[in-house]
Write a structure and sequence with these properties.
By secondary structure, the chain is of the alpha+beta class. The two termini are 62 Å apart. The structure holds one RNA strand.
RNA sequence: GCGGGCGUGGCGGAAUGGUAGACGCGACAGACUCAAACUCUGUUUCCGCAAGGAGUGUCGGUUCGAGUCCGACCGCCCGCACCA
């Protein structure tokens, strides 16, 4: 056996696996299946360490499950639509399609050397017409099922680029590219009716036992269920058709503290009033600024007294003014509220500004009513004294008062208890070229008409230009022209494309039948779904995962997925990032200059450039190109091999936490693999019939390692599995057992290492006479008998402090142990004649003597 | 503001309520070498020559026994945030 040369063995074994079709997923009804999926990458053109960590974790699971006899599906694809391709076309010329497919080829070439157990025959890109055509088919099915609709919605409009911007693209109220002040504009957009599933998406979270608690919580908060009272005010002086004003409140118990009613600037009544120039001016003022959270947060609360009045439901002689207020959201509740300044911070601010009454409904227990200088908002679980309550006791909690108020309102017939959700319908229209075209047609006679399924895919035209702002589809001379599928008259295609989150909301299902001429195939979906283990970043905790959960339900409703797949991901694991130190110097103008890790020399006190310049070392942060704290996986593979990179990203830190990439850590991983290699060579050179000592001990250690590594992988504790492998390696290394025992031990080590470092494992396996390919070999089985020790060493505590120990046969009865313990010299010394009050023997664990 | 998580050696981190610090990095010592690197062996929580003592953010509680459970506080991190 020669030197450890990763470059040689890695290429060799990858070819051997390909030849053996080792990772081809086949539907085998005789075997249990296991579907492991990592979140597919955006084809930026370069893989980074985060990808390496993500895909290595998935690979460990996939290889381990394969060894355990599962029929494994482990596919890979590309989340290939999106803005960067268009930006590249605008900045550097070229075509988004060419750019994207070129990047895919590059990234695939970078991924292959990692030796991932991927079934590449199932590879797909969301920009393949074969993929998005099926997505269009589902869009039409969902339209028919009433899950898709059009409505006018507020968007961030960039007046220079003439396009809609996502909230993330609005920076300080300006378009990120043009720098122009962003306007709010109302556009007719396509929506998925995710809100139809709000309640179900919330309650079903409880069933996702193998999801991180954190993600479930984040989703629950995002869906944002609230219960409260909806009721109608009778209006006075309102425009025609607005005899009543429906409002929603979660605090109906504060109704007697109301001092105004408010409506959203987008409320129909506001629109009805906009004939008044003063109203119109106010509405225009509200439209300034973006729709982002920041924009809204920093916006001043402004209101406009419409002159309309409403009658208080409990006292018709009491009239409240109706304001249009910019902080009221149209798409939550009814878009209208009543304000109770005494017990709501926002209403308090508003009332103070516009000189409205601030009337307490309740006061702290034992306190008298006094003018408020700030709103009084106690916990709902706290008991307070209701001085202007209208239902329930005087002294009660907010919760009880709310329930009593709802009951009373229903009894009096002026309102009803309702449940509301924060979750909005999902706007999917994007005025962009590089996305999945929305397959509908606009006909002068028939209106909005779904495209005929036989005309799918509605394919993106290639001959487009990006030399002008806006959506190239809008100005393409012929692409828009088509015949109305209904009446045959000349019509125009929809030019909006879908949000790229749509593409990633069902790719997991498509992988079960990636070449089918329907979105899915029932048999395949039935066999392969659900994803047993999904792995990806926490940054997708809400949107991607929630949309996928919605989409699976919608696919079930339209007949594309079985009922069991409405929660598509059985288990979710969110892995941490790969981080690195940042190296900074400052240029002559005081601006920071960052340096790549490979240009840095570490010294005792810190770090310098190669010319000796001192460098500031900033603690580890996410690898980012702008901070230059990146390590290119390709460089690591070139100098150490893929196995080292894989081993490193799994060791040290628990998978859910960030791991810091360090040169010394990479060295350590490489050294370890070299040591295993050398150990393998040493065992190979032992005389075949060599009889050593301690075979039984070595084999016991082997079974312990099998048990512990298995447990580590099962529990997603790869760092612990790796620690146990180090331990077992050291044990073999020190052993002087017989050749046959040593061979068995190192073959087992190879198999246990194989999910993490498959190439070196394969070499060792073959060299030590393992049958066939290591990748096809079954996972080692623990012999429980080998885990039982015949003797145990029990620590002896005296009053909880460890003072001595005693070695006894494992099956010695507690009473015998007690006698032995009390006869111990050290124990007698420590007791110094004091009487023993209590003696606790935990068999196989510990002894505690209490005096 | 609301919700959640986490505090253990010089560092990353182990520890079903049962010997705190597994494993790795780093450091130190030794072997090999003319020397260095590599490699190998050993030491490495702190105080102490030792015997021994102290120790898991702080304070208190439960328990024979607490890093682990409970309460309060301090610090750090994350998510959401005008949601009526």
């Amino acid at each position: 056996m020669s030197r450890y040369e990763p470059a040689l063995i890695e290429a060799k074994w990858q070819a051997a696996w390909d030849e053996a079709l080792a990772f081809k997923a086949t539907r085998d009804p005789g075997k249990p299946k296991y579907y492991v999926l990592e979140m597919f990458p955006y084809p930026s053109g370069r893989i980074h360490m985060g990808h390496v960590r993500n895909y290595t974790m998935g690979d460990v699971v996939a290889r381990y499950k394969q060894a355990q006899g599962f029929s494994v599906l482990h596919p890979m694809g590309w989340d290939a639509f999106g803005m960067p391709a268009e930006n590249a076309a605008m900045e550097r010329g070229g075509h988004p399609k060419d750019w994207t497919y070129g990047n895919i080829a590059d990234m695939r070439a970078q991924m292959k050397p990692l030796g991932l157990s991927i079934d590449w025959s199932r590879e797909l890109a969301t920009c393949d017409p074969e993929y998005y055509g099926q997505q269009q088919a589902m869009f039409l099915d969902m339209m028919e099922a009433g899950l898709v609709y059009r409505k006018a919605a507020q968007v961030n409009w960039d007046p220079v680029d003439m396009t809609v911007l996502a909230n993330e693209q609005v920076i300080d109220g300006k378009g990120w590219r043009s720098g122009a002040a962003v306007e709010r504009r109302e556009l007719t957009q396509w929506f998925f009716k995710i809100s139809e599933f709000s309640g179900e998406l919330l309650t079903a979270l409880d069933g996702l036992k193998d999801w991180p608690e954190k993600v479930r919580l984040m989703q629950a908060n995002w869906i944002g269920q609230s219960t409260g009272l909806q009721f109608g005010f009778e209006t006075v002086g309102a425009p025609a058709g607005f005899d009543r004003l429906e409002v929603y409140t979660t605090r109906p118990d504060t109704l007697m503290g109301a001092s105004f009613a408010g409506i959203s600037p987008d409320h129909p009544m506001a629109k009805a009033l906009s004939g008044d120039p003063a109203v119109e001016a106010f509405l225009a003022k509200c439209r300034l600024g973006g729709t982002t959270a920041e924009a809204l947060e920093t916006a001043e609360k402004i209101g406009f007294d419409t002159g309309v009045r409403v009658k208080h439901p409990l006292d018709p002689s009491w009239e409240l003014p109706v304001y249009i207020a910019n902080f009221i959201l149209m798409d939550y509740g009814t878009g209208a509220i009543f304000g109770c300044p005494a017990h709501d911070a926002r209403d308090f601010e508003f009332a103070t500004k516009y000189g409205l009454a601030i009337k307490s409904v309740f006061v702290a227990e034992g306190q008298a009513e006094a003018p408020l200088t700030e709103p009084f908002v106690p916990m709902k679980s706290e008991k307070v004294n209701y001085i202007r309550g209208f239902a329930g006791d005087n002294l009660q909690t907010g919760e009880a008062a709310i329930a009593a108020a709802v009951t009373a309102a229903e009894a009096k017939g002026f309102g009803k208890g309702v449940t509301n959700y924060r979750l909005r319908d999902w706007g999917v229209s994007r005025q962009r070229y590089w996305g999945c075209p929305i397959p509908v047609v606009h006909c002068d006679a028939c209106g909005v008409v779904p495209e005929d399924k036989k005309n799918l895919p509605v394919e993106l035209p290639y001959d487009v230009s990006f030399d002008r702002p806006g959506n190239p589809l809008d100005r393409h001379p012929t692409w828009r022209d088509c015949a109305c599928p209904k009446c045959g008259a000349p019509a125009k295609r929809e030019t909006d494309t879908m949000d790229t989150f749509v593409d990633s909301s069902w790719y997991y299902a498509r992988f079960t039948a990636p070449r089918a001429t329907t979105p899915t195939v029932a048999d395949e979906a039935e066999y392969w779904m659900n994803v047993d283990q999904y792995i990806g970043g926490i940054e997708h905790a809400i949107l991607h995962l929630l949309y996928s959960r919605f989409f699976a339900r919608a696919m079930h409703k339209t007949g594309h997925l079985p009922a069991k797949a409405i929660e598509p991901f059985n288990a979710l694991f969110t892995q941490g990032m790969v981080t690195h130190e940042i190296y900074k110097t400052t240029d002559a103008n005081g601006r920071p200059v960052y340096h790549l890790p490979e240009d840095i020399l570490r010294t005792e006190e810190g770090a310098t450039l190669k010319d000796g310049t001192k460098v500031e070392v900033i603690p580890s942060a996410k690898m980012s190109k702008s901070k230059k704290n990146v390590v290119d996986p390709m460089n690591i593979i070139a100098s150490y091999g893929a196995d080292t990179a894989r081993w490193f990203v799994l060791s040290d830190s628990p998978p859910e936490r960030d791991v810091e990439w360090t040169a010394s850590g990479a060295d350590a991983a490489y050294k370890y693999l070299s040591r295993v290699w050398a150990l393998c060579a040493r065992i190979g050179e032992m005389p075949v019939d060599h009889q050593g000592e301690g075979d039984a001990d070595l084999l016991r250690a082997m079974h312990k390692a099998i048990a512990e590594v298995t447990q580590g992988i099962d529990g997603f504790a790869f760092n612990k599995a790796i620690a146990k492998l180090y331990e077992f390696t050291n044990t073999i290394s020190r052993a002087s057992a017989s050749t046959s025992a040593m061979k068995e031990a190192i073959r087992t080590l190879a198999k246990l290492m194989s999910p993490m470092t498959p190439h070196i494992a394969e070499s060792i396996w073959t060299y030590q006479g393992g049958a066939g390919l290591c990748v096809k070999a079954p996972w080692p089985v623990v012999d429980p008998a080998m885990l039982v020790e015949d003797k145990v060493t029990l620590p002896i505590q005296i009053n909880g402090k460890r003072r001595a120990e005693v070695t006894v046969p494992a099956d010695m009865p507690a009473s015998e142990v007690e006698k032995l313990v009390l006869a111990q010299e050290d124990v007698i010394k420590f007791l110094a004649g004091q009487p023993v009050k209590k003696l606790i023997v935990v068999p196989g664990r510990i002894v505690n003597v209490v005096v």
